[in-house]
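Dear U.,

Please find below the material for section 3 of the report. The protein was modelled together with H2B; I have listed the sequence and SMILES used, followed by the predicted complex structure.
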Amino acid sequence: MATQTAEQLTKKKCLPCEGGVDPYSPDEAKAQLSNHEGWYLTHEGQRIRKDWKVKNFLAGMDFFQKCAEVAEADGHHPDLHIEGYRNVSVELWTHAIGGLSENDFILAAKIDQLPIELASK
Ligand SMILES: C[C@H](O)[C@H](O)[C@H]1CNC2=NC(N)=NC(=O)C2=N1
């Protein structure tokens, strides 16, 4: 499977996934991740995740709202985590196949285009 650049992926739209496609293998996922700065594999290669430290609580909520809007527009939905009031994380996987599909990398690329107010320290 050839890797795709983030720019290519942001031009695509997530396709409904109801199963029947093979998830990315950990090696395929690792190769694709080299085009997604800051994202890493979790759950034995079945999910991707990225963490940010934002300026304050509302900056995190604002970022989550923007993630939600992108997710709704594409019909593919992330797990959104917040810990310690300003450590936010996004985790992506395709529930229907219990692993990673192109949809996850499309959404990761689109989430990376969103504005986010990071903490200065
Ligand atoms: C038909 C529709 O595409 C599915 O119900 C979608 C909705 N959002 C989803 N989001 C995620 N992350 N995984 C899914 O399998 C999924 N399925």
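For the text of the report, you could mention the following: The helical segments are 6-10, 26-33, 57-74, 102-111.

Regards,
Y.
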